[in-house]
Amino acid sequence: MSGQKKSLKTLLNKLIKTARTTDKNKFGNLPDLIFPTIHQWSTKDEVEYFTRDEWDALCHTVIELSGGYAQQRLNPKAYESLLFDSRNRTKGYRNWVDLYDAMMCMWFYHLRAEDMPRLRAEWMTFNQEDKSWQLYLEITKKNRQRHISDSYRPCATTFTRMQFRRPYGFIVFPMYERDESNPENNQVLETCNYLLQYAVKKAGIKKRQSMTFTNIRHTAFFLMVKENRDMFITDSEIETFAKNGHTSLDQFRDTYINKIDAEGLVAKVKQRTKKDASNWELNLGTRKRKSA
């Protein structure tokens, strides 16, 4: 719910700003809106993620909605000429190409949702040594220390294609204006979440709550650890990866490592006791018949 509230706050601020610039005489003196504090409760139940099958189905759906252009190597002119409907964000292809790129930025670099409006093509650097792309966040949450993020997944093809169609400027929905003094206060993240939820429904994915880009961050973390558990054994290994994904060792361990290990233990116990449970139930029936 906190994510939806933040999206609504962003949209309302955007409408106020648009009204002021559209008709300065009529709306120029509109005051800034004052909102109550939006609390984000840190309960483990809120950490919901896509399973591997759901994530693959979601990506496939977005590619289809983009007309297949999300995975094509387009030059800037071809990208700009893609069908685009300014009144209906779900129509046309360009919005879906942008959504796919935003999803891939999250998937490969475990970014925060609020990073989406800030991302620029100039922050991407190709590492000739290992033939991969590195992301250098020039602007971070609350002006935290800038650092280079590496992808633990092979990403060369994805970001080479992305750089080819947008070699400079904003990566995600570049057509939207940004307030340089407050880059998060715009329509970018609201559109990301709106299109994501449309694609989730289109893919037939059922979740407890409306999925947002923060859930994609959880998915990227969770599936990385679940599918590569042997890479995250020592505190040093876990902390290195956690810092690369802009989180702490303790938070990463509590949110992902412990949850994955608990699920794995439950699965092992169920598998091991499955046969015994069947025999136990059959024995109950046998004893009942004998007593009768």
DSSP helix fraction: 40-55%
Outline = globular
Q: Give the amount of beta strand, in percent.
A: under 5%
The strands making up the biggest β-sheet line up spatially as 1-2-3
Could you list the spans in which at least 5 consecutive residues all have pLDDT below 50?
Answer: none
Figure out the total of helices: 10
Q: How do the helices and strands follow one another from N- to C-terminus?
A: HHHHHEEEHHHHH
The end-to-end span amounts to 58 Å
Average per-residue pLDDT, rounded, comes to 84
Task: Report on the biggest sheet.
Answer: 3 strands, antiparallel
Please provide the count of β strands: 3
Radius of gyration, in Å, reads: 23 Å
SS-based structural class? Answer: mainly alpha
Could you walk me through the main structural features you see in this protein, from its secondary elements to its overall organization?
This protein is mainly alpha-helical. Helix content is 52%, strand content 4%. The chain has a 3-stranded antiparallel sheet, covered by helices on one side. A hairpin with a 4-residue loop joins β1 (124-127) and β2. The longest helix is centred in the last third of the chain and has 43 residues, at 249-291. The protein is globular, with a radius of gyration of 23 Å.
Please outline what is shown here.
The protein has helices spanning 2-22, 24-27, 52-65, 76-80, 94-109, 156-165, 188-202, 213-227, 235-244, 249-291; strands spanning 124-127, 132-136, 148-150.
